[in-house]
Amino acid sequence: MQDPIDPVKLDRLAEVAVRVGLNLQPGQDLVLTAPVSALPLVRRITAHAYKAGAGVVTPILSDDEVTLARYRHARDESFDSAAGWLYDGMAAAYDKGAARLAIAGGDPMLLANEDPDKVGRANKAMSMAYTPARERITRFATNWSIVAWPDAAWARLVSPDLSEHDAQRRLAEAIFAASRVDDGDAVARWEAHNAELTRRSSWLDAQNFSALHFTGPGTDLQVGLAEGHRWLAGATASTNGITCNPNIPTEEVFTTPDCRRVSGHVSATKPLSHQGTLIENIQVRFEEGRIVEAKATKGEAVLQKVLDTDEGARRLGEVALVPHGSPISQSGMLFYNTLFDENAASHIALGQCYATCFQGGETMPAEEVARRGGNASAIHIDWMIGSDQIDVDGITQSGERVRVMHKGEWA
User: Fold this and answer.
1) CA dist 108 to 111, 277, 326, Å?
2) pTM, entire model
3) Which of 46, 42, 24, 25 is nearest to 34 (CA)?
4) Which of 21, 182, 369, 406 is the most buried (most CB within 10 A)?
């Protein structure tokens, strides 16, 4: 039987991950995390990295069965601990110039039937321990990126009516298309796509809106924008001088909200797959920037645990605009994976802001980021609020309204 994953397109994805996603430089080390199922992609990325002149490539692999063994056999107190030594080491590697690449994959519903209290505690412990590494990433202290592997378990969830072979082939082709490696010169296609995203972000920068107003079914949300904010999209310069594409794929333009100036209510337009749990039909209400009411029809216990991670977990760290006509949205697929689903719809993120979304943010002290409204938290979790029924208005500094999106499309 033919391999469900086209080896030519997989190799193109590996090349794009190294040349476009990371823009890996000669002599630069690479820290690579991936599920063990993604070894075929890990091997191809490693080869392209060394061809690009990489110093040392260090893969760190995870495994679903190993993860489940913890929930089945570990002592209760285990769920309040995490491998902080590992994340400290990753942070140290970034400080010494290593690039960071994550391969997303695995079973999005792996922990759906596990004790939500243990899931929430383990997630909180991991989020706290990961803080040193996350801070380097959110500040773009190094070049980093994320790509995806079409794991068989993930494919079965996305296409439950197909055989495993056909489901994996369908997911692989969708990943290749969204990542712009399905045909032709993938690197050139990414150059053109980045140019279009830059045009959108430049227009938004020129408007210098005070706030965005999202309206539609179940949503009436005003998101204040941080003082001195800037919009980023596609290719982004890290503070080490290397321009990278943090997400492969990407369709968003995003910036930092003022975490004190968010008010109203909003409903998720897609489920959120978080750390192995599916959270459906999220509805929250904000007052003075803080979530004061939150509910979900499925996974609510995990959602509440997320919101209790720390003070910043109930505030916003990102707002992003994505047209409903994006290729990922038009595929009609629910990916159960934030890397893809966030690029199908406009979204907001709970938790940590990106300091690079401030003018001069690369060197801005944390105290100044906070003064301007940037949020701080041990989490950063995107969830989707856009659809073909959502309008977005920009509110100028003088209080006038400018239509930004109408029925999910750029106005």
Assistant:
1) 8, 7, 23
2) 0.86
3) 42
4) 21
